[in-house]
Every structure is written in structure tokens, then in C-alpha cells.
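Protocol step 4 of 6: structure prediction from sequence.
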Amino acid sequence: MAGGSILPGEKERLNALYAYDILDSEPGKEFDGIVRLASQICDSPVSFISIVDLNRVWFKAKKGIADNQIDREYAFCSYTIENDTLFQVEDATTDKRFSNNKLVTGKTKIKFYAGVPIINRDGYKLGALSVLDTNPKTLSEERVLALETLAALAMKMIEARAQSHSFQNIKEVQDKILSIVSHDVRNPLASLRSVIGLWTDDLLSREEADEMLRVSAQQVDGAIDMISNLLNWAKLSAKISRDKKVINLRELLNKLYTAIAGVMTSKKNSFINNIAEDLIVEHNETLLQFVLQNLLSNAAKFTDHGSVSADASQTPGKLELVIKDTGMGMNEEIMDQLFDGKKNYPLWGTANEPGNGLGLMLIKDLLDKYKGSINVVSLPGEGTTVFITV
């Protein structure tokens, strides 16, 4: 293998890299400016900011290179990320590590390479700022210092980009939440006030008032549940916790089911827990409870005279959960808007319970933060299946 070896801790390094969501992103003028300056300072015709993926090296910015990426096995910067400071090859044709590399023997005829690792605050090396030349040479101390300064600047820009995207996503979620809360809390309270006013003015009979108060109380209960759900989401979002507990997943599902057992019974629904009795997972218990409680609640809300089932499987580093119901299902229009923070799609359960899609949106927001995923498959009249990976 011509490139550097895969180092211990590579899984952790890649996880840190993927958190920045920088791979295959759009070009940026600021990054382009860094590579042009690196070429000028180091008097080298080729320069680039590379991001080192598992099997490839992708160029965030480049000068003098046509390709957008190369195989990692041929990349000089695979060696760079093994170092904390400058990695330099004065003449690759006489270096046994690179003398047979196609970048040296092929049309590019690379002889000189110098690269400085791009290191995040946790010490993970995401890639490198590098310069190349077809002539052998050595960088002076001043040029090395300049290259190290530019590499540090590139890391700051990657972090700033990630923060900007994070703030944008947070704003979209917040806007959606504010829209839903203002509607779903204000309306039940307004309805309750109206009923009380009509009763006070003797415009309702006792029977009419009792029925309208019953409906209003149900709406207020729904609003309270929604606010409680938002508070739980906020706690999980405020601090991303990697704390793990040993959990019997089947027992956890049975415990969470008790919260919806009354609704399930009144609607003549059955609950099928297909999770193996011996499936033990080591995970964030609070996150799993939030996700599963919301999914079970949704399934119960939109299912009548049917069933809700739960399945799970585990592979190294991955837990897959499936919650399936035989309820109302959703049409394509609703599915297209399911995770759209700019739109609202009010739904009503089989017992006229109000729904707004907030639970699924909060689940997706949390799973994005915890590097998980959610996928929903649904057909009107046939039910909904939700696939979770976390």
C-alpha cells in the first residue's frame, strides 16, 4: 500500500470528521483563498485542503489539480495525518515509500510534498493542507510556520461552517416549534374560555356545557403532554450525552407500553413485542425512552382495532428499532412534509386526538445530533412503519 496505514482510533477519527458534514460540500471562497496563499508562500504550483475519508481523500479546495478526490492508498496526506506537525518529502523518486506511487511515476510526476495536518480541538486529524511540486526542494522554517498557521485557519473555518449549519438547523426547528406551540396551546385555552363564558351567560344547558368541557379538557391534556414532550427534548438537546447504560430492550418497551395501555385497550388494539428477551444493549437510556415513547404514542393515536408491534436488532456499533402499526397511514402529501420545519400538517387520531407531527420532528432532530437516522414508510389505510438507527 503506497499510502499511510490505517491507524488505531480510526473509527473515532472518522466519527469526528463526519460530525462536521464537510465531505462533498460546496466550494468556499475562503478555503480557496487559503490554498492560493499556500501556493504563493511555498512557491509551489499545486496546493490543496484535503479531507481524509476511510478509503478516499477528498479536496475541499485545490489549486493545480483537476480531480476532486483520489484513492487514499495513493495520497501523501495519509502519512500527514499520522503526524502532529509538518510531513515533508523532499524528493519522492528517491523515497521508497513513494517511488512506485502512480502520482510519482505517472503524468503528474510529483517529486516534492509538504503537508500540515488539520487538527480539531479534540486532537483528531481531519485532513491536511498540502503543497506539491514537480521539482525537489525543502521548505524553510518561515514557510513551514506559514503553512501551519494556514492549516490552523482552515480548521477554524471548518468549525465555523459547522456551527453556522447547526444554528440554521436549530432555527428551523425552533420556528416550527413556536408555530405549533402558539397554535396548539392557544386554541385549547381559547376554547375552554369560550365554554366558560357561554355557561356563565346561561347560553348552554348543563348537558351541552358538560360535553363541551369534556372536549376542552381533552384538548388541554394534549397541550400539556406536548409541552412535557418539548421539555424532554430540550433537556436531551441542551447537552449531548454519551453516557450509556446496560438496558434490556424488551423490558424497556413493556415499561413504556404502560403509558399507552389504556388508549390501546379502549381502541381494541393489540401490542406485539417481538424484541428478544435476551437482547441487552448499552445505550443512552433517556434518548431511547424519548424516541420509543413518541413512536408508541403515535402508533396508538392513529390505530383502531389493529395492532402495534416492536422489533429490534443489534450489530456492532448500531441499534436498529422498528415500530409498526396497522392504522390510518399517511398519504404522499403528508409524507413529503413529514420533516419539513417550514410546514405544518394537522392530523387527527382515530378518536379525534389532535396531532401535529411535532414528535417525529423532535425525534429526527435528536437523532441527527446523536448521529442516528429515521425512515418512515406509510400507506393510507394500511399503516405506518418507522425505522430507527441509533
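Step 5 (inspection) to follow. The chain has two domains: 10-163, 241-390.
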